[in-house]
Amino acid sequence: MKSRGSWRHWNEFLRSVEKPPEINLRDLIIPTMDTARYKYILNVLLSARRPLLYVGPTGTGKSAYIQEKMMREIDRDRFAAYFINFSAQTSANQTQVCIIYILFA
């Protein structure tokens, strides 16, 4: 059986970043192995037109990766981006109402 590819370490996907003077440091995403993995999965699933939901601990960058992709890199003719912020007080009912409003408004 012929191999179609090879394994690559996530570090190979990282590139150095210089902070542009006009960008606030808190808006800069520093490349790490985790950001490479998150972005890779995001790109693969979007290109395959598959739904995506990131879950995980607070403060790990989930929203930042997705917002960066959706606001700066996607084809606006093919995708629509909607953002819903959750907190510990967000109920399932509130989420459902928000999604229905987005879909049918």
Outline:
This protein is 37% helix and 0% strand.
How are the SSEs placed, and which strands pair?
Blueprint: H1 33-47, H2 62-72, H3 92-104
Description:
By secondary structure, the chain is mostly helical. Helix content is 37%, strand content 0%. The chain has helices at 33-47, 62-72, 92-104. Helix 1 (33-47) packs across helix 2. The longest helix has 15 residues, at 33-47. The protein starts with 32 loop residues before the first helix and ends with a helix. 1% of the residues are buried.
Features:
105 residues, mainly alpha, 3 helices, globular, dynein intermediate chain binding, dynein light intermediate chain binding, Dynein heavy chain hydrolytic ATP-binding dynein motor region domain-containing protein
Q: Roughly how many Å is the radius of gyration?
A: 17 Å
Average pLDDT over all residues = 84
Sketch the topology as an H/E string, one letter per element. HHH
Structural class: mainly alpha
- Largest beta sheet, briefly? none
The total of helices stands at 3
Organism: Protopolystoma xenopodis
Pfam family, one: AAA_7
GO molecular function: dynein intermediate chain binding; dynein light intermediate chain binding
Protein name: Dynein heavy chain hydrolytic ATP-binding dynein motor region domain-containing protein
